[in-house]
Amino acid sequence: MSDTLMISVSGMRGHVGSDLTPELVARHAAALGAWVKSRGGASVVIGRDARTSGPMFTLAATAGFQSVGIDVIDVGVAPTPTVQMAVEFHHAGAGLIITASHNPIEWNALKFVGPDGIFLNAESGAAVRTLAEQGPPRSGWDGIGAYRVDDEAIARHLDAICELPELDIPAIRAAGFHVALDCVRGAGSPTMLALFERLNVRVTGINLEVDGIFPREPEPIPENLGALGDLVRASGADLGMAVDPDVDRLALVDETGHPIGEDYTLAIAAAAVLARQPSGSGPHTVVANLSTSLVVEDAAKAGGARFHRAPVGEANVARDIVGERAVIGGEGNGGVILPALHVGRDAPLGAALILQRLVTTGERLSALVRSAPQYVIVKAKAPRGGDLAAQYAALRTLWPEATADDRDGLRLSWPDRWIHVRPSGTEPIVRLIAEAPTGADAEALIAQARAAR
Predict the structure, then answer these.
(1) Which domain holds residue 132?
(2) Cβ(109)–Cβ(12) under 8 Å?
(3) Secondary structure (DSSP) of 248-265
(4) Are both 316 and 172 inside the same structural domain?
(5) H-helix or E-strand containing 411?
(6) In this structure, are 194 and 338 located in the same domain?
(7) Cis omega before residue 283 (within 30°)?
(8) Residue 216 included in any domain
(9) Higher pLDDT residue, 382 or 170?
(10) How many domains is the chain partitioned into structurally?
(11) Does residue 146 sit in the same domain as residue 161?
(12) Most CB atoms closer than 10 Å: which of 33, 378, 384, 418?
């Protein structure tokens, strides 16, 4: 593995042209297709974000699938959650999403989805990698897979959102919200604009082109949302919303133009869902990953729910949501998962739930944030290197009084703060994430952890 070709249980990502090539994509698509065939499946769904290499890799992957006798259903440029839902709708044996999510413009990636609409687990991912290494068996002239287009996937996705009992669609429509929207020239604007039209939301937008030429760093974190904040102030919008290139993450900017941090997306969405549960139907469970802010845990408890943490990674969170029978879950990066819809992160869903909470409370977004306990979360990166186990041991020695969780790297926690150190699954780095009541306290945890490494 090179420094930039990252292979995980549910796919791979790398630099276009040097790491990720059409030949590599075709081989791994053929392997995924052979895995589907070995399980009695006959078709796969394929979709992509707006990156310039997407059409090329779609052609390569389609050829790979057809070469092993698997039919291809192409949903085109679509949000990641739309593709996941299409896998379930078509009862396909798997899905392939061609997207590097929040990575910079030079990257692209393959994400493998199982027949349940969830990213592949470790066992299935290993089986696909083995087939790719061995060379999957190819079909002859009379066994080549078929190809067809599904151009209704986005509409079905939005239909399903608007039918959710967690949403009071007439109330949202009557509120007449004005949203400032930034889609970073990714796959998001057709879906988000169609959703807002259904919800009677007026939109003032930037970066709505669907060409994959990102005008800024594409991850929807506060430091990348200055232009959206300016747009909120200039337009007088009720709030700002930003999605990442594949539209599974949603970040918010309040009515003053201030980015509030991605963890609040899940916290507010969880509050919206818990408030709409039928009386006497509890107790309910909310699931989030080990790196998610305490604001989500606080929101769950305020709504009378039990809170459960899962290892980082959408597939891990999704499977714990299913196993814990949670009503909502997700990740602190702005990824909201509502199992009543599907078990995957979904930015259009998140947007609708945020509007629902604003309607229910009658509050502005800044007031919702102020009404919750306040924390500061700090995220840092360090080069991957050395013996991680020894580094974790050093951190345990540094903080022997902390509660330790080693299911995914090492998370050390106290009643009002925590630090999580883990190797990234998408970049050649180690992530250090800390949270505390003040920024200085969180920065101190990061500094001490760096010194101990």
Answers:
(1) 6-151
(2) yes
(3) --EEEE-TTS-B--THHH
(4) yes
(5) strand 410-414
(6) yes
(7) yes
(8) yes
(9) 170
(10) 3
(11) no
(12) 33
pLDDT (tens digit, 9 = 90+) per residue, 310-365? Answer: 998 899 999 999 999 999 999 999 999 999 999 999 999 999 999 999 999 999 99
246-290 confidence digits (pLDDT tens): 999 999 999 999 999 999 999 999 999 999 999 888 789 999 999
| CATH number, domain with residue 60 | 3.40.120.10
pTM of the full predicted structure? 0.94
Tokens of 340: 């009543």
Last residue of a domain, one of 151, 181, 205: 151
| Predicted confidence (pLDDT) per residue in 204-223, tens digit | 999 999 999 999 999 999 99
Q: What is the mean pLDDT of residues 111-132?
A: 96
Residue 426 has pLDDT above 70, yes or no: no
Options 8, 67, 101, 139, the catalytic residue: 101
Rounded to whole angstroms, the Cα distance separating 349 from 265 reads 11
Per the CB < 8 A criterion, the answer to whether 277 and 327 are in contact is yes
Q: Answer whether 383's CB lies under 8 Å from 439's CB.
A: no
| First-to-final CA distance of the chain | 24
Place of tokens 């009503």: 327
CB 94 within 8 A of CB 35: yes
Of 188, 197, 118, 104, residue with least CA distance to 154: 188
Q: Under a CB-based contact definition with an 8 Å cutoff, are residues 156 and 89 in contact?
A: yes
Overall residue count recorded for the chain in this entry:
453
Answer whether 243's CB lies under 8 Å from 220's CB.
yes
CA distance 85 to 298: 30
Q: What is the pLDDT of residue 280?
A: 83
What are the strands, taking DSSP E only, across 106-229?
107-113, 147-149, 178-182, 202-206
Q: Is residue 344 part of a domain?
A: yes
Lowest mean pLDDT among 1-5, 213-217, 369-373: 1-5
* Domain-located, residue 240: yes
Contact 363, 352 (CB under 8 A): no
The answer as to whether 1 is a domain residue is: no
Whether residue 413 lies in the annotated active site? no
User: What residue spans of 149-262 are helical by DSSP H?
Assistant: 153-162, 169-175, 189-198, 226-235
List CB contacts of 68: < 8 A, sequence separation 6 or more: 30, 33, 34, 37, 136, 137, 138, 139, 145
